[in-house]
């Protein structure tokens, strides 16, 4: 499955010929073509960078083109008087400014005095901030100007989309990893579609809630857990959604902080959450990764199943937990060390034991979804030969069976990777989207000793976003 691209967190608009248009036909002695030529010289570029004043720019331009400086000034006064706002862009800007997760900026090549005159006519409250070439001392398409803006707005390049009417300016933005789009007739509709589609609304919900999205039991008890947050990162490959890092730890606990639902609040770290953290957060030290994997390998049983906990006294196994751990090993090219574990997963597909759920994963669609995740973890030929056709057959048996949003999303994700059409399930999932853009929590896992079911809206929404994007 391809890496998903989140909607931009910031939109940067050019001003001239995007937010507003102007006419070079000024009814002066200077023709429109000549006025455009004046604006395309090193002299004018110096003015835009704030290196010279407007009056000096006019004087130097007059000498360059054998014109009167006063006539040049008159022509540009007339040009400014012709400014006309693009109502569609203004309407879009007002809507974007109402969205708490989107920041809106302007970035323009414009001289200091021209910007001061423009400020008398424009409503700058449309933007979170306006960046001018005169203030920055740089102009588009100079890379430094884009870097300056990114530093100021504190967004990564891939989190920003840049809209400009000039191809060279857009290409310069793209060279820095910024999403670039040349302004045209479809720009407004394209941006509205990006933010207002079901997927866009799902992302918006995650931007606002993922880091605070508690899990909840079927009895209504809410608590915070690491597994849900890590799964969101693993699904969407966006670490900005949650606040998690390895720090000094070498193993992870399902719970964040004190263990909920547990007498005394003490619960051992587990291999399922640790393997997910290793895959989602990808530590940079090869030695550290190897050490964590080696420790996990010590907890595999003779039949290929992995123990769930880093506690020899708490002996618990689950075939989907084993599949998740195996996915981690495959993602680091060590899955071939655990052929018996792979055989265990295959036997689960063969005898359809997933239909009753497992100790920790009660839903058949979740079980198949995690086996699909195992397949996505590696291109290993033996892995795919062992599971792919059998998984495809079992997923086809689930088509059109309905279910909650989580069941549908995991089914759709697996269908997409197997090339199975599932339009009815997609429509069913779309129908379950809530007004706030998210989806209700489905029961993804269970607390083993009691069978208490646990769900998380953030996880279900992330699954739905990934599914509908596939």
Keywords:
470 residues; alpha/beta; five-stranded parallel sheet; four-stranded antiparallel sheet; 11 strands
What does this molecule look like?
- With 470 residues, the protein is of the alpha/beta class.
- Helix 10 crosses helix 11 and helix 12 packs parallel to helix 13.
- The chain starts with 9 loop residues before the first strand and ends with a helix.
- The protein is elongated and about 90 Å long.
- The strands form three sheets. A five-stranded parallel beta sheet has the order 5-4-1-6-7, sandwiched between helices. It has a four-stranded antiparallel beta sheet with strand order 9-8-11-10.
- The mean pLDDT is 94.
Proportion of strand residues: 5-15%
Main β sheet profile: 5 strands, parallel
Q: Report, as a whole number of angstroms, the end-to-end distance.
A: 7 Å
Q: How much helix is in the residues? A: 40-55%
Q: How are strands sequenced across the largest beta sheet?
A: 5-4-1-6-7
In quaternary terms, these chains amount to: single chain
Task: Give the overall shape.
Answer: elongated
Count of individual beta strands = 11
Poorly predicted ranges: none
Mean pLDDT: 94
**How many DSSP helices?**
21
Radius of gyration: 28 Å
Going by helix content, strand content and strand pairing, the class is alpha/beta
Tell me briefly what this model is.
With 470 residues, the protein is an alpha/beta fold. The protein contains 21 helices and eleven strands. The protein is elongated.
Write the layout of secondary structure elements.
Elements: E1 10-13, E2 20-21, H1 32-38, H2 42-48, H3 54-65, H4 69-81, E3 84-85, H5 87-97, E4 103-108, H6 112-119, E5 129-132, H7 133-136, H8 143-153, E6 160-164, H9 167-175, E7 179-182, H10 187-196, H11 198-209, E8 215-217, E9 222-223, H12 226-236, H13 271-281, H14 286-297, H15 319-331, H16 339-351, H17 364-376, H18 381-396, H19 405-418, H20 423-431, E10 443-447, E11 452-456, H21 457-469
Parallel strand pairs: 1-4, 1-6, 4-5, 6-7
Antiparallel strand pairs: 2-3, 8-9, 8-11, 10-11
Helix pairs in contact: 2-3, 3-4, 10-11, 11-21, 12-13, 12-21, 13-15, 15-16, 15-17, 16-18, 17-18, 17-19, 18-19, 19-20, 19-21
